[in-house]
Every structure is written in C-alpha cells, then in structure tokens.
Design goal:
By secondary structure, the protein is of the alpha/beta class. The protein contains seven helices and 19 strands. Strands 1, 2, 5, 6, 7, 8 and 19 form a seven-stranded mixed β-sheet that branches. It has a five-stranded parallel β-sheet with strand order 10-17-11-12-13, covered by helices on one side. Bound molecules: flavin-adenine dinucleotide. The site of flavin-adenine dinucleotide (FAD) has 40 residues, from α1 and α7.
C-alpha cells in the first residue's frame, strides 16, 4: 500500500515526486510510455526559469527525476492500464499488476496530435514543433508553416508573426473551423499567407536532420510543389492521456480532467497536475507548478486523515 502514486514522469509528475518525497511520503512514480514526458522529445528549452543559457529538454526532466530520487521517490517503468477509483484504497493496474494507494496524482499529460508522416516524426524538436510559445523565438526572420484550421492554429500563426518573416497557414479543407474573430485576426495579419485545400506530403530534410522545406499537394488542382520553410508547427489539437480514468473521474468533452479547485478532482484523494487538466497554458513551468500543488494537497489530505 502506497501513500501516493504519481502517474507520469513529465514536469508535473517529477515535481510532484520531489515535493511528495521531501514530505516523506515515499511516492511511487509510474513512468509511462514517454519517460520524461514531452520535454524528452525536444531540444533547447529557453523559458524554464533558472537557466539563463537554456537547457536541453531531456536533461531538464532527468535532473528533476534525480532530484526526486535524492529524497526517496521510487520510479517504476510501466503504464497504468486500468483504475478502480470507486473506493479507497484506489487500485491501479500497472502492466498487468494491481497496486493500491491512499492518494493518487494524475500527471499523465496530453499528447500533441501529429500528422503522422514518418519525416515529421523524425524531425520533432529539429524544426517540427507543436508549440509556438515554446519554439517560436527560434525562428526570428525565418519562414515557418502552421498546419491546422482551428482556433489554436490561428493563435499559433498570429503569435509566430512576432518572430517569423512569413507564416504560411496550411489547412486541408477550404473552410476553417476557427471562430470568426480568430480567423479575421489571422486574415488581417499581412505576414500570414493562407493555403486552404492543401495537404503536406513530406517534411524535408531527413538527411540534414533539420527542417528545410515541405512537399505540398493542392487537393483541388492536384498540383504538387516544394516550399522552403525552417519551422513546421503542427496545431491540430491535443489528446489528453485519460483513457484509464474514463467513467471514473469527471472529464470534459475533450477528455481533459475537470478541476474541482486547486489540484482537486471530483474524487477526494485523487489530484490532477499539468497538461492532463490544462488546455490553456501547456508549459513546463505551469506543469511543474501544478505538480507542486498536487503533492501539497495530497500531503495535507493524508495529514488530515492522521497519516
Ligand atoms: C516538442 C515540444 C517542445 C516543447 N517545448 C517546450 C518549451 O520549450 N518550454 C515549455 O515550457 N514547454 C515546452 N513544451 C510543453 C511541455 O513539454 C509540456 O507543457 C509539459 O511537458 C507538460 O508536462 P506534464 O508533466 O503535464 O505532461 P507530459 O510532459 O506530457 O508527461 C506526461 C507523462 O505521463 C506519462 N503517462 C501518460 N499516460 C500514462 C499512463 N497511462 N500510465 C503511466 N504514465 C502515463 C507519460 O509517459 C509521460 O511521462 C514542449 C512540448 C513539446 C511537445
């Protein structure tokens, strides 16, 4: 029986582990399919406080893990497949084996949706990104492309015009899903060029291990051509990793955990941290802050029960 199990080894899970371990709760962290979370697939992180020169994403999350281990956090490889949160102790099935815990911190993140092209996947962190706030500043006076037709694509495109010399917005349909106000703002921005009814067939250049351009196809005319860009931003949404909690805790229509204030879910003793609940900020520092909140709440919850 554990005091606290933390699901996820990204910024939120690792920070929760540091706080829970320092509170002597001996947390168990379930690493999941992506050890270190989303930062493990990026390169330089320039906006995490405390690193004036920036720090490589994998190094940052590895440091957090080491820091948690110093205080006694235990990490286990595996994925939570199923949960029973109907009564306490809560039960979690990790790689086929059931574990029990008095409190639970869910820090399982939200994975970016990608186009799924092999070249795109190989160039993530090398010009391919899912986060303009994170990576936009690397593209000063460069040409970039944004993929998507919803509000987040418009927001990313508008944001990127602060840095980029030109932003091409590619969408596979003629009509955009984005709200009128967001679409109008993007249309009114002279740096944004629209390419509707167009799909990306390939991201170049795998041989150079960086983005140099893309191959595009217009779905109406069939025309295929190459376009030079250095940044390729995919803004087609995120999928919160909440499958094992479906039907157990309150999720919104997109599957994000619904917060009941602070780090609380609708179930007493189950707390949320990071991108799994946060559709607004999605940053390493906000996820880390949320991990801190969840661990403090778990600690207070256990203390109130006399543990
Ligand atoms: C390419 C890229 C670059 C980025 N760059 C920056 C940047 O420069 N600055 C910045 O502030 N932010 C950046 N971000 C955003 C930042 O990475 C996220 O906001 C942050 O990682 C969220 O942390 P998290 O712990 O909530 O979730 P995640 O990092 O997504 O971690 C989720 C964890 O949960 C685990 N997990 C999921 N499901 C299960 C399960 N069923 N069982 C067990 N474990 C599970 C995963 O294995 C993973 O370890 C970037 C994101 C991407 C994709």
């Amino acid at each position: 029986m554990r005091n606290v199990i933390i699901i996820g080894s990204g910024c939120a899970g690792n920070t929760a582990a540091i706080y829970a371990a320092r509170a002597n709760l001996k947390p168990l962290v379930v690493i999941g399919h992506e050890p270190g979370g989303q930062l493990s697939i990026t390169t330089l992180v320039e906006n995490f406080p405390g690193f004036p020169e920036g720090i490589e994403g994998p190094e940052l999350v590895e440091n957090m893990k080491k820091q948690a281990e110093v205080f006694g956090a235990e990490y286990v490889h595996g994925t939570v497949e199923e949960t029973d949160l109907s009564k306490r102790p809560f039960r979690l099935k990790i790689d086929g084996e059931w574990h029990e815990t008095m409190t639970l911190i869910i820090a399982s993140g939200a994975s970016a949706r990608w186009l799924g092209l092999p070249s795109e996947q190989k160039l993530i962190g090398r010009g391919v990104s899912s986060c303009a706030t994170c990576d936009g500043a690397f593209y000063r006076e460069r040409k970039v492309m944004v993929i998507g037709g919803g509000d987040s694509a418009m927001e990313e495109a508008n944001f990127l015009t602060r840095f980029a010399s030109e932003v091409t917005l590619v969408h596979r349909r003629e009509q955009f899903r984005a709200s009128k106000i967001m679409l109008d703002r993007a249309r009114g921005n002279p740096k944004i060029k629209f390419l509707p009814s167009t799909v990306v067939e390939e991201v170049h250049d795998l041989a150079k291990n960086e983005v140099t351009g893309v191959r595009l196809r217009n779905l109406e005319s069939g025309k295929v051509w190459d376009q030079e860009v250095e940044g390729f931003f995919v803004a087609i949404g995120h999928i919160p990793n909440t499958k094992p909690f479906k039907g157990q805790i309150d999720l919104d229509h997109d599957g994000y955990i619904v917060s009941h204030g602070g780090a609380r879910t609708n179930i007493k003793g189950v707390f949320h941290a990071g991108d799994v609940q946060d559709r607004a900020y999605r940053q390493a520092i906000t996820a880390a802050g949320a991990g801190c909140m969840a661990a403090i709440e778990a600690e207070r919850f256990l203390e109130a029960e006399g543990h």
